[in-house]
Amino acid sequence: MSLVRASTAPRERSIASPATIIAGLGGLYVAQSVIGGVVFTGLPAVLRQNGASLNDIAFILLTVLPWSFKFVWSPAVERYRSPRSGRRRSREVVAIVGAFAVAMIVACALIGPGALLPLTVAMMAASFASATLDIACDGHAVESLAERNRGWGNAAQVGGAYMGAAIGGGLFLVLIDHLGWQPATLVMAGVLVALGLPFLLTPDRQRAAREDRPPQSIMAALRRPEMRSGLLLVAVYVLGAKWASILISPFLIDSGLSLTALGTLNGIGITVSGLAGAFGGGWLVRRFGAFPIMSGALALTALGLAGFALAAVAGVKAPAALGALMLLGSLSFSLGVVALYSELMGRASLDQAGVDFTLFQSMDAIVSVVGWWLVSAVGDRLGFAVCFGAAAILGLAALVALPFLARRESARAREAQQGA
């Protein structure tokens, strides 16, 4: 499929091979998710073990805000990282912001889990640094990877998220159990340094971009039709793929799964199935294109949600069957996200790649949070069967809308080619 670009600037050949670029980016994506795993999975468990109330734990989760609103400062990051003249500064940004993120994790180790307010401030700063790293990392990926390699780049992104979450939300807790808070947190800081080194040590002498380009800005992104249609695509896809995900763990607990069984599913099963979907998606997108894979993933998601709805109606308590549905959802989700983000990379302008891709991710985050809040608000009243059934219908509606969005983008691509 032909992809629209706002910039016609020629892409200089990077000294690094595509495999080296993807490996370096993958390390950064894992590192970002390690921070997320520590903040959103590991830390709440530690706080609860130390006697924190649920309100205290909810207070810590305010650290998610930088990820939802990182588009606000993305133009400033991109203006520095990718100036009009001279070389790109991707590695400089990663080195400076990454060092700050590591320093904040070290600060968390020194503060300890008993001092909630300073710990929250340090974690908020680490989350801000991680979100800022993601802006630079995504911009560098769009600029550096040719279209045929974007699927592998997105596989590294999604697979890195699963691996990082397993380290930050799983290994971190094991280390705390055996070593204590401070040594375990310092180990996480060391892991972040090790994960960032491959990117920092990879040579990159590409020039930033054409010198006559306009300044990077959010309004410049929103003026381009392929960006607006991309934001619509994200919203439609998220509606079909993510809204019911918050209900699955509570439903499995109500169906009789133990915390140990659910923890094993989340820790091992979800990680393995997510990685399989991510790297399988990278290969499939390269061979078949993004939209067919998105359609297949949405179909699998709707099928899994319909299965949960039927299980809720029939009162099914079979752990193996319900666990299989959960793993199917993880596989289809990671498969679809790789395809979605590969498509979105093609809609990001080389003039402001980090700004454009950050807008897409923020749309994903905002629609997800709104959906999770709505589902949580009405779930008790409507019941699992209705909620899962409605989510399956939303998935099918998104599946029906995808061909229209694909044709719309193809028509714009043809018009751009004719205009050129």
TrEMBL record:
Domain of life: Bacteria
InterPro entries (UniProt xref): AmpG_permease/AT-1 (IPR004752), MFS (IPR011701), MFS_trans_sf (IPR036259)
Pfam families per record: MFS_1
Membrane topology: Multi-pass membrane protein
Membrane-spanning ranges: 21-45, 57-73, 93-112, 182-201, 231-253, 265-285, 297-316, 322-341, 353-375, 381-405
MF terms (GO), sorted A to Z: transmembrane transporter activity
Keywords, alphabetical: Membrane, Transmembrane, Transmembrane helix, Transport
Places the protein is found: Membrane
Family: Belongs to the major facilitator superfamily.
Protein name: MFS transporter (Putative signal transducer)
